[in-house]
Every structure is written in structure tokens, then in C-alpha cells.
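Researcher: Next sequence.
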Amino acid sequence: MKILGIETSCDETACAVVEDGRKILSTCVASQVDEHRLYGGVVPEIASRRHSECIVQICEEALDKAGCKLSDVDGIAVTYAPGLIGALLVGVNFAKGLALAANKPLIPVHHIKGHAAANYLAYPELEPAYLCLAVSGGHSQIMEVRSYTDFHVLGRTLDDAAGEAFDKVGRALGFPYPGGVYIDKAANLYKRAEIDSAPTFRLPFPKTANEFDFSFSGLKTAVINIIHNAEQRSVGRDVPDAPIDKNALAASFQHTVCDILCTKLVNAAKLTGHTRIALTGGVAANSGLREMLNCQLSSALRESTCQLFVPPLELCGDNAAMIAAQGYYEFLAGNRAGMDLNAYANRDVM
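Model: Next structure:
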């Protein structure tokens, strides 16, 4: 069964064809990063316009690379929530038009469920149930994936998501957008023994009422305050242009974020008894997070046979292959949408 996937939740226009939820026949992405970098972040109006301009071409390219026509696909899956509302509407309306014209089933896919499905494309052996940490620019969630379509959220972000905090701190440090990539590079450049046990900058580990919820706003503000205080102390003095070691601060910030994510995920694994753990989302590409999670899981769950599933880098960020993969399982579960399908900027996964 071939599913055409469409993803336009943020600044990536993506289409893909996936067979039986596991095999990628094609995946095409038109990135807008270079344009949004000029503004230090995603401009929603620009993102929506660019989606409108290139979605037809990207869809045709995906079908061509898959060696099939629209009439050959069995369903059309599209991200309908959550995301930038204008960007989502472009994809949803385009998918509705295709489904109506080709008389194909229209399959609504939640973006976070799509991220979880990215691991199905990389690991044929992965099946529910398992524990999943989804971390991206807009989301930080720990979820029990009870079946391919039944998700139970144990904890979520209360304010800034991890990826958003990375980007905002990166901008404060003077790094280009997206800041998370450059913070990772700066942290890797910072050569210091045992940094995992003794970060250079002491940063807060935010507490939440629900032990599995996340809060990164205060941590982000603490880093920005360190930067501003250093800048203020340098005013009118004969000091170097860089009053603080950016690489050291980036390394300390990344270490703290990863420690928060890993600690809560490991505790959730202990509570639920899950030994299959999946990491997904754009922040899953962070090298520090991958390394720390491997280490903490091995140490904390030593007595159990724990398996960690992390998608390859090309499937961590937003892509349509993950939407098509999840669309396949939504299709099997009987989930369909009509021409009244709408887009939602915010909607919980369930």
C-alpha cells in the first residue's frame, strides 16, 4: 500500500511516498532556512507564501521519484496539527484538493505522531508498545505509544520547548538561525575534561509539579542574563569583544537541557517499565543528547535489556516520509477525513 505524505507545519515544504508504512519510495523537501535566517527565526507569513509557491512542484517530484502517478497511491496523508496555522492550511487544502480530484482517501496525521513514525522507517523491528521522547522546536513530550495510533502523554512542555530554547539562546550568543545546530557545534569545540559532571556555568534545573513535564523558559532566561551581565560589565572597559567564552556557555547550556530531558525520560522508563525507548524530533539530531541518553539509559536500566531507537539525521527534522508512514497506520485504523478537515495550531496528541 502506497501513501502520499504532505508536511507543511512550519518552514519545510515536504512530500513523500511510503510503502506499507516502512519503506521510503521517495522523499522531497524544499527548505526555507536560508530565507528565515535573515530574520533570526521563522516568519509565518513568508513560510505560508513559500509553501503555496512550491508545493505543487515538490509533490510532482515526489511522485516521479517514486515511479508512480497520483492514481497509483492508496491514500493521501497530511499534517493537520499542530504548527503554524497559515502553513498548515496550505498543506491541508492542497491535500483535500488532491484527494477530491483523484478520489483518494484523505488521512489526517498529527505532527507528533508523525515524528514517532520516523523510527518505523529506520527500524523495521520497532513496534508498539514503547516509550517515546519527542523533542523539536515547538514540542517536548514524553509519551507511551500504546499502539500505532493510541498515544498517552506522560509529560509535556509548559512553556518553551527544548528546540525553541536552543534557538533563542543561540541567537543571544550571536549564532545564526537555527541556533541549535551552532550550539551543538560550539559545545563540541569546547574541550574540557569531565564537563558532564562539572559544567563551567551553573544553570538551573527547573522543577515542575508533574515530574515528567518540562520547563525551559527559566533556563533560557538564566543564560541570556549571563550574556547581558557580561556585556554590561564590559561597557567602557578595555576588554576583549567576547566577554564570555561562548563555547563554554553553549556547552553548559546544552549539557543542562540534555540532562533535563534524559533524567525525566529515564524516570518515566523506570515508572512504566518500558525497555524500548524511542527518541525523535529535530532536537534528536543533537549529538550531546544522543550521547547522554545512551549513557544514562545504560547506567540506570542496567538490569534490563534496554533498546534505544533514534532516527537517522535526515528523519529527525520535519519531513513527509514520517507523515506518510503514520498515515499508513491511521488508514489501517480506519481514520479518514472529509472535505471539512481543518488545520489547528494547537492540538494534543492522543
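Model: The CA atoms of residues 119 and 311 lie 5 Å apart. The chain is about 45% helix and 15% strand.
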